Sequence to fold (96 residues):
Amino acid sequence: MSQQSGGVRTRAFKAAFPKVLPRIVDYLGNVLPYAMTGLLVVYSLKNVNPLAGSQGIPEAIAIVVIVILHIWKRSMLLSIAGGTAIYMVLLQLVFV
Fold:
């Protein structure tokens, strides 16, 4: 995934600056998506108390769906959209 997404990000930079891509830009292009994903996971789960009734169950199911979709298709957009859809369905229809 890092090669594919890194290539997409660096093409725009190379088009604007046709010289050699600085190593720091290439490094940040490979590292920041994973850092941001980790940050979003921690932020999303900061107020979840798994010991308080059914709180935390929809989040856990959505996380499992996201991981399975990402392993299966290797598509970040599909993983996020699928996990969000499952989470919303669980909140609106199952855990009312």
About this structure: The chain has a mean pLDDT of 85. The two ends are 37 Å apart (CA to CA). The chain has four helices and no strands.
